[in-house]
UniProtKB/TrEMBL annotation:
<feature type="domain" description="NAD-dependent epimerase/dehydratase">
    <location>
        <begin position="7"/>
        <end position="224"/>
    </location>
</feature>
<comment type="similarity">
    <text>Belongs to the NAD(P)-dependent epimerase/dehydratase family.</text>
</comment>
<dbReference type="Pfam" id="PF01370">
    <property type="entry name" value="Epimerase"/>
</dbReference>
<protein>
    <submittedName>
        <fullName>NAD-dependent epimerase/dehydratase family protein</fullName>
    </submittedName>
</protein>
<dbReference type="InterPro" id="IPR001509">
    <property type="entry name" value="Epimerase_deHydtase"/>
</dbReference>
<dbReference type="InterPro" id="IPR036291">
    <property type="entry name" value="NAD(P)-bd_dom_sf"/>
</dbReference>
Length: 311
């Protein structure tokens, strides 16, 4: 585990950054940077011992970053500006340009982890390894997302080499926890009686990874940081279909699950996690997808009971 370190987590109020910042704060000095449009998110992090920094990376100059951001040993970059409209200029300003400035600010860190995504790969029915072709995977659903992730990786790789910053680019697949992630979105739809969109002509297979196992694998990912940047798929050991886990969520919650076949649905994207297993020295996951998603359903049901019982 990581202990006694100074760590900056960007995107600390997000569904991935929040639990990771909270867990690391138990044994490290952790700063959580986010816009904090939800004050409750800021309060929860501070209660857990995270030192919060309310700022928008896209609005910070290089001088701002030097003055505002603390000296740390490690940077975990999860921040991303998500929006639906196909605004490529905004994508470059908000998600690409700040990366170069952030890496320049932290040119002396022990390691810089940039959280990318497996949506950088070209659509393919077989698991994708780190050196497989890249492509515009998400265009039917979000026209800017895949291209922005590829551009982000290009920026990170260039500045990493230019400044000699030990870097890991982790291509994340489907993270989830008891209250967040793609499976949680599916559960919310199932409970609301809404259909689950699936692609009619493409496998729906992914490799979900519980946030707890993401935290377990962090030391290995940070330890792999290098110049040029190390590139590692970040997903679970088990390959499972969206329709399979949604059917399971329906069984656990006692709800009928309906599927809507549409070309606008996300295609399956399953990473090959062999490189990550080598870094970890064994299996990636300690929590199977069935156990993790069962806990998610139980937590959702408990939250619903609490809401009903509240005065």
């Amino acid at each position: 585990m990581i202990t006694g370190k100074k760590i900056l987590v960007t995107g600390a109020s997000g569904s991935v950054g929040r639990p990771i910042a909270t867990a690391l704060a138990a044994d490290n000095q952790v700063w959580g940077l986010a816009r904090y449009t939800d004050p409750d998110a800021k309060d929860r992090l501070e209660t857990a011992g995270v030192r919060t920094i309310a700022a928008d990376l896209a609005a910070l100059s290089a001088d701002d970053m030097r003055g505002l951001l603390p000296e740390v040993d490690h940077v975990l970059h999860f921040a991303i500006d998500m929006f639906d409209e196909p605004d490529f200029e905004r994508t470059m300003r908000h998600n690409i340009e700040p990366l170069g400035l952030l890496l320049s600010r932290y040119r002396d860190v022990d390691s810089f982890l940039h959280c990318s995504s497996t949506v950088v790969y070209e659509a393919h029915p077989e698991p994708r390894a780190e050196d497989d072709p890249l492509g515009d995977f998400m265009r039917p659903v979000n026209p800017t997302y895949s291209l922005s992730k590829i551009a982000s990786e290009a920026a990170v790789r260039s500045v990493c080499r230019l400044l000699g910053v030990p870097t890991t680019i982790a291509r994340l697949n489907v993270p989830y926890s008891v209250d967040s992630g793609f499976p949680m979105m599916n559960l919310t739809s199932i409970l609301a009686g809404e259909p689950i969109a699936v692609h009619p002509d493409f496998p729906d297979v992914f490799a979900p990874i519980h946030v707890y196992d993401m935290i377990r694998t962090l030391p290995a990912l940070l330890g792999a940081a290098s110049t040029p940047a190390a590139i590692v798929n970040w997903g679970g050991d088990e390959q499972v279909g969206l329709s399979e886990w949604c059917t399971y969520l329906g069984e656990l919650s006692g709800r009928e699950v309906t599927f809507l076949q549409t070309q606008q649905a996300v295609k399956g994207m399953c990473p090959d996690v062999g490189r990550l297993r080598e870094l970890v020295g064994g299996p990636v996951c300690s929590i199977s997808w069935r156990d993790g998603m069962r806990a998610m359903v139980e937590a959702s049901a408990a939250a619903s009971r609490t809401a009903v019982d509240a005065p």
